Amino acid sequence: MEFSLQQDASQLDTAASLILPLTLAQDGSTPITSDALKRADVLLNGAISHAIASGDLSGKFKVSQLFLNAGSGPDRILVIGTGTADKLNGRKYGQLVQSAWAKISTNPGAHVANLLTTADSQALDISSKVRLTVESMVQACYRFDQFKTDNKDDPTNNTQATTMALAAGTETQTQLEQSVATATAMDLCRDLGNLPGNVCTPNFLAEQGHKLAASSSKVTTQVLEEAEMETLGMHSLLSVGKGSAEPSKLIVINYQGGEESARPHVLVGKGITFDSGGISIKPGAAMDEMKYDMCGAASVIGAMQAVINMDLKANVVAIVASAENMPSSTASKPGDIYTTMSGKTVEVLNTDAEGRLVLCDALTYAERFNPKTVVDVATLTGACIIALGHHTSAVLSNDDQFAASIMTAGKQAFDQAWQLPMGDEYQEQLDSNFADLGNIGGRSAGTITAACFLSRFTQSYTWAHLDIAGTAWTSGAKKGSTGRCVPLLVQHLVNQV
Ligand code: BES
Ligand code: MN
Ligand code: ZN
Questions:
Q1: Which of 9, 27, 80, 377 lies in disulfide reach of 296, CB 3.0 to 4.6 Å?
Q2: What's the pLDDT tens digit per position in 222-268?
Q3: pLDDT-based confidence at residue 8 (cuts at 50, 70, 90)
Q4: Is 282 a catalytic residue?
Q5: What are the start and end residues of each CATH 3.40.630.10 domain in the chain?
Q6: Is the CB of 467 under 6 A from ligand 1?
Q7: Which residues of 123-135 are buried (b: 16+ CB within 10 A; e: fewer)?
Q8: CA dihedral in degrees (67, 72, 75, 78; nearest 10)?
Q9: Is residue 95 within 8 Å of 119, Cβ to Cβ?
């Protein structure tokens, strides 16, 4: 699907399908106020006012009516209620876009004019509406059916040829381009997440890095193999993959879009392509979902693709720490002690707390880029789901101002994150009798103690950690990767320019 911006008046006649919002006024009435609605009502010989008068159309949220038009103008006109302007927030706006699309997606025609961006909302400016329309549309069209042998039958699958014009002035063109880049990157992130663990291995993620390098002259990708990591002293990272036949990889993707000397913004992603727990093995229920344990890496790779497509004027480095966590006679065991690249020793008290073990060495490696900022992204703790559920990612940082800027980016991108505290008092929970620190901090404050572990390796730069354990994928009947937190990461990088 291709997106463009147009002024609303010109679109009525050329579109095959037209989507029009109908606002419910505060007094409960539904006046036809917009020029577009008036014009459509004329094209339909008064059918819209008739539908309102008869109560079929109320202006209430998501209540809609599809009009087929045999005369001149669009073949089909969908009028959809948006509710009152004070209630239409970002989440509801996204639902509105998806609901409208579901009504016409079996037969939208080659050109759709979407005027939902003209919906009355107190909370949303035009940029936000453009962003939400693009991202919700792309999400609505997302399919992951490459492993279904009968995947050609779904008529709503055929959206490649559809173009969608949004009603907005050209002043939002930059926002449109950013949104398209973000939505495309979310699709990549979703694909990488949804791919099974036997396909999406550390080597497969490394290939994604090489693909990005092949797509742009501003990108170079370097993949560190186990032998090189051994030489660098990354024994903590390497300990995680010891039980797996899949070799671990450290994937470094370097984007030079800014001044040569400008310090880069670094993104670090947890890329555990399957987390069985290792010798501290997980229970069987829903263990398949641990293929999603590389969603931090997928977000970071997605964000890099967006940065390339937006031609961002900044230097950005992505580091993906990738391994498969499996039990075997060669796997690391509870009680084993490893020396990290930083020189600090770690006692592995639970092999299922493996994310921090790969991230700590990647975070030490990040030092060599003299980074302006570092953000790591990880499906790190089940405790994060208990604390914040499935709607909000956790952010923890060694700099409250930086944490605030990450939360702001999340708000702007409708991809929210909330800060958890990380005071000294929590650090003691990581004390080990035999090494510099243990890799677990006990039952309480699991998300915080995981971040405390990482903080021991990030003292030389401004750093934030995002725990996306609750937000990266959905379970149950609609199981699938969400594409989060690509929007937050992209907005964070855009805000740095
Ligand atoms: N990848 C998991 C965290 C996770 C679990 C994310 C379930 C989403 C859903 C991580 O590697 C892990 O196993 N963490 C342990 C840490 C514990 C052993 C200290 C956890 O959260 O139970
Ligand atoms: Mn684990
Ligand atoms: Zn894990």
A1: 377
A2: 999 999 999 999 999 999 999 999 999 999 999 999 999 999 999 99
A3: low
A4: yes
A5: 185-495
A6: no
A7: ebebbbbbbbbbb
A8: -40
A9: no
485 preceded by a cis bond (ω within 30 of 0): yes
Does ligand 1 have an atom closer than 6 angstroms to the CB of 350? yes
d(CA 133, CA 437): 47
380 CA → ligand 1 middle, Å:
6
Distance CA 447, CA 428 (A): 15
Which token pair is 266?
Answer: 């670094």
- Residue to probe by mutation, ligand 1, list 273, 347, 352, 356, most atoms within 8 Å of CB: 352
CA distance 231 to 341: 10
Find out whether the beta carbon of 275 lies less than 6 Å from any atom of ligand 1: yes
- Kindly state the tokens that stand for 89: 């927030």
Distance CA 216, CA 476 (A): 38
Does residue 356 have an active-site annotation? yes
Cβ proximity of 162 and 112 under 8 Å:
yes
**Per-residue pLDDT tens over the stretch 432-483:** 999 999 999 999 999 999 999 999 999 999 999 999 999 999 999 999 999 9
- Residues 247/226, Cβ–Cβ less than 8 Å: yes
Q: What is the pLDDT of residue 153?
A: 63
Tell whether domain 185-495 is in CATH 1.20.1050.10: no
Q: Is 352 a pocket residue for ligand 1 (Cβ < 6 Å)?
A: yes
Write out the two tokens for 157.
Answer: 């699958």
The domain 2-164 having CATH identifier 3.40.220.10: the answer here is yes
Q: Which residues surround ligand 3, an ion (CB under 5 A)?
A: 272, 275, 293, 355
Q: Give the largest CA-CA distance in the chain.
A: 83
Task: Give one word for 208, left, alpha or beta, with left for phi > 0 and alpha for psi -120 to 50.
Answer: alpha
